[in-house]
């Protein structure tokens, strides 16, 4: 959320220094917290994983990537945002309820365990998918938001 705020500040003020700092933060956050095939993971002081992947973390990093792609026209940010979108669609979706789970913890059988579906988090995820559709031009992401809404 902080990186997203820095990017918004850069957009409002037009300061390249603020934008560049936000983009460096975006790159560092990705490098330190992204782990295939799980997505964004919270890490402790010494780099240890602190829990299972959270929908909120995926969504907020995705939104920051979308804004980075929009403001700086960086293809890498759009690729990252779409990668996060694909992860949410495959790992966080609850097909029975038609919503996105708050977390994606794997079970012993390799399937994702059931988790709660929080309306606030789902609304933020829908916002992310709408923003991603707007920047990428792919209707797939708008359809993902529409399904959960």
Distance from first to last alpha carbon: 23 Å
Which band does the percent of strand residues land in?
5-15%
Structural class: mainly alpha
**Based on CA inertia axes, which overall geometry fits?**
globular
Compute the gyration radius: what is it?
15 Å
Question: How much is the average pLDDT?
Answer: 91
List low-confidence stretches: none
Work out the helicity level.
55-70%
Main sheet specs = 2 strands, antiparallel
Helix count from the secondary structure assignment: 6
Order of helices and strands: HHEEHHEEHH
**Largest sheet, spatial ordering of strands:** 1-2
Please report the total strand number as a whole number.
Answer: 4
Detailed description of the structure:
By secondary structure, this protein is mainly α. Helix content is 63%, strand content 5%. The strands form two sheets. A two-stranded antiparallel ribbon has the order 1-2. Strand 3 (93-94) and strand 4 form a beta hairpin. The relative contact order is 0.12. The model has no long low-confidence stretch (mean pLDDT 91).
């Amino acid at each position: 959320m902080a990186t997203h705020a820095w990017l918004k500040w850069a957009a409002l003020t037009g300061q390249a220094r603020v934008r560049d700092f936000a983009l460096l933060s975006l790159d560092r956050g990705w490098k330190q917290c992204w782990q295939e095939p799980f997505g964004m993971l919270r890490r402790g002081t010494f780099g240890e994983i602190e829990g299972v992947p959270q929908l909120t973390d995926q969504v907020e990093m995705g939104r920051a990537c979308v804004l980075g792609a929009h403001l700086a026209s960086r293809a890498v940010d759009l690729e990252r945002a779409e990668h996060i979108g694909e992860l949410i669609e495959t790992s966080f979706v609850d097909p029975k309820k038609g919503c996105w789970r708050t977390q994606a913890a794997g079970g012993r059988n390799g399937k994702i365990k059931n988790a709660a579906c929080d309306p606030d988090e789902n609304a933020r995820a829908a916002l992310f998918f709408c923003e991603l559709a707007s920047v990428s031009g792919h209707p797939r992401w708008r359809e993902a938001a529409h399904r959960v809404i």
